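so i finally got all the pieces together for this one. its two components total, 570 residues if u count the protein bits. some of the lines might not be protein, just check the labels. i wanna see the whole assembly predicted at once instead of chain by chain like last time, that was a mess tbh
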Amino acid sequence: MPRRRTTWDTVAIVGVGLIGGSIGLALRERRLAKHVVGVGRNTARLAVAKRRGALTSTTTQLSRGVADAQLTVVCTPVARIVADVRAVADVCPAGALITDVGSTKQEIVAALDGRLDREVQFVGGHPLAGSEKTGAAQARADLFDGRVVVLTPTRRSGREDVEALSSFWSAIGAQVRTMSADAHDRVLAVTSHLPHVLAAVLSSVVRCDELPLTATGWADTTRIAAGDPEMWTQILSSNRGRVVQALARFQERLDAVRKNLEDEDAAALARFLSQAKRNRDALGS
Amino acid sequence: MPRRRTTWDTVAIVGVGLIGGSIGLALRERRLAKHVVGVGRNTARLAVAKRRGALTSTTTQLSRGVADAQLTVVCTPVARIVADVRAVADVCPAGALITDVGSTKQEIVAALDGRLDREVQFVGGHPLAGSEKTGAAQARADLFDGRVVVLTPTRRSGREDVEALSSFWSAIGAQVRTMSADAHDRVLAVTSHLPHVLAAVLSSVVRCDELPLTATGWADTTRIAAGDPEMWTQILSSNRGRVVQALARFQERLDAVRKNLEDEDAAALARFLSQAKRNRDALGS
């Protein structure tokens, strides 16, 4: 089955929430796929995504949903991805490509790379896009515009597959980067999982009587703590070791700042805040 | 000099940055003061605020600036407020009211309450509004809309003065709360100063090569780290003891979460994330 670089005949999306729904909307709006089949367990949620124009058809039967798909994107929660990719591999056409959008990669890639029985390929992926809001009702065709998508191929991955997947994400607006699953998880522990833990701890230590005296600073800093607890339990658990390392790195610096305060060392405090500002300014708003 | 509840003849603003400029814009736009005099050391910055319509006149001479002011709002950095209020008290009209907008209150109120020589009154204040962006060019007439302003009167404060100040802030859109300077600083250590330290530490631990793999979560969580380092050094220093206590409260909870991760206790992790989400959801976006 030849893969076309920029347009696809049939793409299947397994798990149609914010990410899956947004992929569907982007594909449909840019006319990149003739058929976008949504596969899920909840017909009401599938109906929402179809009504919004993200899908051309829906089914609760995986074998029907992926039967004609040259590409299947597995968008289910992290803890289910390995089983779902295996299930897709058992029923999709020979030569088909499977990818995922899981926030952690090492466990998933280790379990799947070179371990699928049939003539199908899996290449891991992770779009760094999302929101504390979830569900297909929140999906947006421009969710991936200018966002980074990390692909985590291995030496077993076919170059053509990686290129096809890279074109897929580029076509819906993303900037594609390629790195090992290990490197991905190490960096994301610091840039994504650590902030989530901190936001949640900050949110949890504020008492009800203190909440009225929060302002935009607290609101910004804790926003992601509104994310789905079940989803984040899975993400943090599946990258446990590296998250603990990131926490240690954070705690060491926090201890130093606390000591600056206790020592009334205003000069050290100012140096620290200036360096933090330089890092933050490098990103832009 | 009688104080009118809703409109003022002359209000002086000492230090015309984001907050001072926004007060001026709000007063002028709502026609709450005939004259709004800006006092500062930098004529170029004063000119920006005047050009934007926040001020009716400007001066670098404090004695000229506050000569006719029934109300003077001191909007200088925290470390300068005590000296600036004393200087205003020496030259403003008898019977005049002075307030400030400093982010910490205990040190300032302790230094000024009942300690001004002449027949002028000081009541501390703190609008919980602001931004990592600073300067009069960023000022907005609606900066205080729906924001909380805390007033910190003492038993020495005149009821009429507190009411006048309360009307002043209400008239420009704020919700006024009254509490002791001590209570203010204890709560703000948790809701404002702690988030600032965490955002700055998070920003400072991310390395350059990791920065491209940050997404909206990191951006939100670190946004306030772009704030003015000098200003924040002063705020943190002047509330040192309570910030250290808030850090201890945070670190204790963070240690517990880290232990949940190390122990692979997914159930405890999920409970913690759910509680954090409930707290965050209570605030709204």
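The domain at 8-179 of chain A is CATH 3.40.50.720 (Rossmann fold).
Chain A has a mean pLDDT of 95.
anyway lmk what u think
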